[in-house]
Amino acid sequence: MRAIDTNVVVRFLTNDDKRQASAARVAIEAGEIFIAATVLLEAEWVLRSAYGFEPVRIAESFRDLAGLPGITVEEPAKLARALDWMRRGTDFADALHLAKADECTAFLSFDRDLAKLAKMSGSTPVEEP
Fold first, then answer.
1. Cα distance between residue 94 and residue 112, in whole Å
2. pLDDT over 70 for what percent of the chain?
3. How far lies 47's CA from each of 52, 63, 89, 118, 127, in Å?
4. Quick one: 43 exposed, middle or buried, by C-beta within 10 A (0-12, 13-18, 19+)?
5. So what's the pLDDT on residue 125?
6. How far apart are CA 117 and CA 101, in angstroms?
7. How many beta carbons lie within 10 A of that of residue 64, not counting itself?
8. Alpha-carbon distance 83 to 105, whole Å?
9. Could you tell me if 23 and 10 are in contact, meaning their C-beta atoms sit under 8 angstroms apart?
10. pTM
């Protein structure tokens, strides 16, 4: 299995550099690819800030990518949960942090919006430190 970097994900999804996008496509289509949550976290930031992608488009793109044959993503159920929250307006980083804290008794944060999300979704409660 081979892991890919953020720039490979971005080239694959944006096709902004034809040569690199083609190479990314060939690598991804060959299968046996691992994508870490940290790569998707960085890719979300790049796609949103540098390319102007809307959160819903990013969530759909990540779902499509993760669903390709031969692609393995880190903690797929937690990623899916974070992408669901992202589609409903939650910041992807916050959603991913909260999804990954599933087995914890609490998630410490000063973020009141995150606390509301946790309460509504039935996930790990967010508490002030």
1. 12
2. 100
3. 6, 15, 16, 26, 31
4. buried
5. 87
6. 13
7. 11
8. 22
9. no
10. 0.89
In whole angstroms, give the CA distance from residue 35 to residue 27.
12
Amino acid making up residue 64:
D
Structure tokens at 123: 């996930």
C-alpha 83/C-alpha 62 separation (Å) is 8
CA-CA distance, 9 to 31, in Å (whole number)?
Answer: 14
Which structure tokens are listed for 110? 């000063």
> Looking at this protein, which amino acid is placed at residue 35?
I
With tokens 């990314």, the residue in question is 24
Q: How far apart are CA 69 and CA 32, in angstroms?
A: 9
* Helical packing angle, 55-66 and 37-49, nearest 10°: 140
